[in-house]
Amino acid sequence: MNGKPTRMFMDDPNIQWRNGKPDYTKADEVYLQGRTKHHEVGSLEEIVSNIIKTFEMEAQHKVRAEDFGIVTSDFKMNTNGGRYFTIPNLIERGTYNLFLDDSPLYDASKETRESSDNDFKTTFPDGFSWEVLEVIHGPPKLVFTWRHWATMNGPFKGNEPTGQLLEMYGCVTADVSPDNKLQCVHFYVDANPFISKLRNDRCPLMH
Question: What is residue 207's predicted lDDT score, i.e. its pLDDT?
């Protein structure tokens, strides 16, 4: 039970990658060292984890909608009940800008995909890991909780690195097709405390 993630839809030679086919060796090491859950092989939690890690890989590294294999053709997603985004939006704007779209502490409208990717890669040079905590309800109406974590070993928009472990927790509800492809995904998270720590200021929504 080593728990190493399985990312699907990476082997087609016709896939167009943003910066070449990604190597997840280091990212998987960080994930295995920092995770808090050890799911059984073949468990629903492991299956869901691999689906989401595949989506994360495709969203970050593929540049054509037709190369996405883990989503349906009518896929859409949103955060905290906000506006919906599609795969073309994801390719153009990037995962961070769409995920943090409604955060009052992060103005995604002023960021490009390149600027946001560079900011978070600089801040978290060792990676920004993600894990499934608990699957509350299985497909086709998927509900699960998750944890995102990273160590701030680099600066964030001029703020000095702290070496602090930063964590973010949230929930996802999703419609999943019979062949385990994501059709509609709703992310729920309060990212303000996390962003506040990156900015080294006090979150105005915390008391």
Answer: 44
- Gap between the Cα atoms of 11 and 185, Å rounded: 25
| pLDDT > 90? residue 3 | no
Long-range contacts of residues 11-20, Cβ cutoff 8 Å, at least 24 apart: 12/67, 14/67, 15/62, 15/64, 15/67, 16/62, 16/63, 16/64, 16/67, 17/61, 17/62, 17/63, 18/60, 18/61, 18/62, 18/63, 19/61
Long-range interactions of 27-33: CB distance < 8 A, separation 24+ = 27/127, 27/129, 28/4, 30/126, 30/127, 30/129, 31/5, 31/127, 31/129, 31/130, 31/131, 32/2, 32/3, 32/4
| Structural tokens at position 51 | 């689906």
DSSP class of residue 14? T
Ramachandran region, residue 160 (left: φ > 0; alpha: ψ -120 to 50; beta: rest)? beta
Q: d(Cα 87, Cα 92) in Å, to the nearest integer?
A: 9
pLDDT at 63 over 80: yes
| Confidence (pLDDT) at 204 | 52
The reported pLDDT for the residue numbered 101 is 86
User: DSSP assignment of 26-74, as one string?
Assistant: HHHHHHHHH-S--PPTT-HHHHHHHHHHHHHHHHHHB--GGG--SEEEE
CA dist 122 and 165 (Å) reads 15
